[in-house]
Amino acid sequence: MNLIDASEFVRLEPEALDAYFHEKAAEIGLTVADAYRPAVLETLAALQTHAAILQARLVDVALSPARITPP
Amino acid sequence: MIGADASSIAAAVKAGRTTAQAVIRRTLDRIAAADGALNAFTAVFALEALEAASRLDDQISRGEPVGPLAGAPFAVKNLFDVEGVVTLAGSKIRRSAAPAAQDASLVARLRAAGAILVGTLNMDEFAYGFVTENAHYGATRNPHDLGRIAGGSSGGSAAAVAAGLTPLALGSDTNGSVRVPAGLCGVYGLKPTAGRLSLEGVFPFVDSLDHAGVFARTVADLALAYQVLIDPPARTEAEPTLRAAVLQGWFTQGASTEVLAALDAVGAALDADAGLELAGAEAARSAAFCLSAYEGARLHMADIRARPQDFDPAVRDRLLAGALLPDAVAEQARRFQPAFQHEAARLLQRYDILLAPVVPCTAPRIGEASMLIDGQEVSVRKNLGAYTQPLSYIGLPVLAAPVNRPGKLPIGVQIIAAPGREDRLFAAAARLEARGVIAAHAPEDIRHDA
To answer: Measured between CB atoms, does B249 come within 8 Å of chain A?
Structure first.
């Protein structure tokens, strides 16, 4: 799971995001108490939205090669 | 002299019209009277400050030279190291840390210039927030309305300066943490170009985005403090005419009508062009959001594994989520920086100054999870940094300036320049201040029973 790419991550549906949450937490040795889990999952979903916005822009930039070189 | 600016205090102390000890005694009295209501300070160094003032007065009486900030009181966000004091960074977790062995570089520079440290200031835990509603140390209240937030994460710094408790304060800005509280409290806040101010002795949040910054109530004080803090000295000769433009698109989306009116007033005073868009701003904001969660989580990984219950819940949830973010997302967030820098550089070749609001609204109420902006209900915590995050993401220098609105809740405007051109920020701010377009107002008397 650590090697999940950004494209896969932004495409995870809610159920798959929940599964990813558990697998990733186990992989890195993180215990997320039941009391925290809904808020953490909600925050992870918000990060997923931000990652999707970023990725869409990177695709635009990639389609305009002149833009990726700083002046 | 309480409520006076640092330049006037230093002039009076050097000329013998008052003493540093008298200034500090009155400062301490004012803090004692007002901070119960504000909750800006986390520690007050009364004895040490009076001793420093006494040493300064002795120097002056012996005719020895003193620095440009002689006798001016200042305070620092409690993530700056102060020799002999535990650097809390707004946390409970660091209460057991060893006291700092030496002052942070910027604290040392202010002291060397004759300024006198009077205390440390409240903040969001580990600088991760825009509200300074700290679960361990309480909320810092806005001096203009004690029922409202001061903003964050340097909320104590902005509130202390706005209330006239100190003329200067240090803060830090990773995503807007100097500019947001400056805007909401109605004071000036400077976040210089990335890397221009030393972060030595400053507890980190996001290494790739962290900046130090400073608060003041006048442009002259802000410029004087910056000259003291920076090494080598900054360029001071901005062009006589500044080409200005108002950023729209992302930077006005969701802004209240009164924020847009304030921005228009500032733009008009600088004959600014309107309708300019900085392409990619939304993605830059998202990149900053992801990087902050990712890097912040890795900085605190040991503690979020071992003692998550000891974090402020609002911070803990974001750090835990950040720990789960794939590495590939953080790599993309870094990869977008040069492309967005390029977009900003294109605009800053045409214009010396860009203008944008600091936040979409006036200060929300303490404890409010959502707020109404022009009839739309939006999240407080998610929206306060929308206009500041894209700019710190690429390290541009920004001066947050209070629009002149006496008797009303403060609104701030971001004045933005090309990297290394802080001189243009000060020149634009000085012109706006001289024309009465921007000004820091003393709040109405602070209610001590709140």
So the answer is: no
Whether the per-residue pLDDT at A63 is higher than 70: the answer is no
Partners of B338 on chain A (C-beta within 8 Å) are 68-70
What is the per-residue pLDDT across A6-59, written as a single tens digit (0 to 9) for each? 999 999 999 999 999 999 999 999 988 888 899 999 999 999 999 999 999 998
Chain B hits for A47, Cβ within 8 Å: 289-290, 293, 321-322, 325, 329
For β-strands B353-357 and B244-247, DSSP reports them as parallel
pTM for this predicted structure: 0.96
Residue A10: strand, helix, or coil:
helix
Which amino acid makes up residue B114? G
**Alpha carbon distance, N-terminus to C-terminus of chain B:** 26
CB contact, 8 Å: B347 with chain A? no
CB contact under 8 A, B280 and A57: yes
Distance (Å, whole) CA B288 – CA A68:
18
Tokens of B85: 């004091």
CA B225 vs CA B71, B206, B218, B267, B431: distances in Å: 13, 25, 11, 26, 19
Instruction: Tell me the CB-side half-sphere exposure of residue A14, using CA atoms within 13 A.
Output: 2
ipTM score here?
Answer: 0.93
| Pairing label, strands B188-191, B211-216 | antiparallel
CB-CB under 8 Å, A25 with B326? no
